[in-house]
Design brief:
It contains nine helices and 16 strands. With about 325 residues, the protein is of the alpha/beta class. A hairpin with a 2-residue loop joins strand 11 and strand 12.
Length: about 325
């Protein structure tokens, strides 16, 4: 997959089959669009192009309303990694600014999709809107496609257990600690990447190291305070783990620096070389805290470890 950070860098793409949107989460609905994109590109010997935006448009356009406290399901790095796994040919990341938001839907189609990309087919998700004040939609795309000679296709909403999937629903599930529901919507484990730092050895007689985790982006959505069953990976290192989150709060529309994320690898000694770790969330086990008595903590951890062993194979 080739990554483009400029619209000027889009020359020479063969028979482009294009989609556009935030694609936060790369969830089952997004994957349906990408699968269709790839099928259409194969049919015309073309290349797939996905145009996305950074930061999220709502954070720029509505900082005191829809964009206030909006946290991202995926960091930029996580999104790129998931996009690479889909087999896309081109990922275009446009820096979203207020100036860019002034581009009308007709100019976006005529100057970018047609003028720069020479799109052959444009694929959009259900109820997709674009352009200044979100004035563009499928019907408008279809109207202009007849003038400019490209095809347009709309992908219907995707359902999981009779519930329509959306990034908003995934955020809601994560923010209430419903990890398993979020994972079902995503069709992959919820992921958090960060730099680990050795903190201390457990004081509960389990002889397990405790590591803290630092997150690079303060708009990344971290689940609420609690104890979680996770998998931990770093290159050749893999382990089941127990992770705790505390001091979750938002400050000035961003995740507070006071948040504490700590994890215990349960199966192997975690390397202390400060290589980036990937944490895969399986389930929220319980609320944090409780009785500070050492015996109680030991019994609670034994219970947590048994549940993790039954849950993660």
């Amino acid at each position: 997959m080739k990554i483009h950070y400029s619209l000027e860098d889009l020359k020479g793409i063969k028979n482009p089959v294009v989609t556009t949107g935030s694609f936060d989460g790369v969830h089952v609905g997004h994957k349906a669009i990408i699968r269709r994109l790839k099928k259409l590109a194969k049919d015309i010997s073309g290349e797939t192009v996905l145009i996305t935006f950074d930061p999220h448009p709502r954070r720029v356009l509505y900082p005191d309303a829809e964009g206030k406290d909006l946290l991202m399901i995926l960091s930029q790095k996580e999104k790129i990694e998931l996009m690479e796994k889909t087999g896309l040919d081109h990922l275009v990341i446009i820096r979203f600014t207020k100036e860019f938001s002034q581009i009308s839907s007709s100019d976006f189609i005529e100057k970018i999709l047609v003028g720069m990309l020479h799109a052959k087919i444009v694929v959009v998700g259900f109820n997709h809107q674009f352009g200044h004040r979100r004035e563009g939609d499928f019907e408008y795309l279809y109207k202009l496609s007849r003038t400019h000679g490209f095809e347009v296709e709309e992908i219907p909403e995707q359902d999981i257990q009779n519930e329509t999937v959306s990034s908003t629903k995934i955020r809601s599930a994560l923010l209430t600690g419903n990890i398993q529901r979020a994972n079902a919507y995503l069709d992959h484990f919820y992921v958090v990447k960060g730099m680990p730092d050795y903190a201390q050895q457990s004081s509960t007689d389990f002889n397990k190291d405790i590591f803290s985790l630092s997150i690079e982006e303060n708009v990344k959505l971290i689940p609420p305070d609690g104890v979680y069953a996770v998998s931990i990976a770093c290159k050749s290192f893999h382990s089941k783990g127990l992770l705790s989150i505390s001091n979750w709060e938002l400050k000035n529309n961003f995740l507070s620096d006071n948040i504490r994320i700590e994890f215990h690898p349960l199966e192997a000694d975690c390397p202390r070389n400060k290589k980036e770790m990937t944490i895969y969330f399986h389930k929220r086990l319980r609320d944090p805290g409780g009785n500070a008595d050492t015996g109680f903590l030991r019994a609670q951890m034994e219970k947590d470890i048994r549940e993790i062993s039954d849950l993660i194979y």
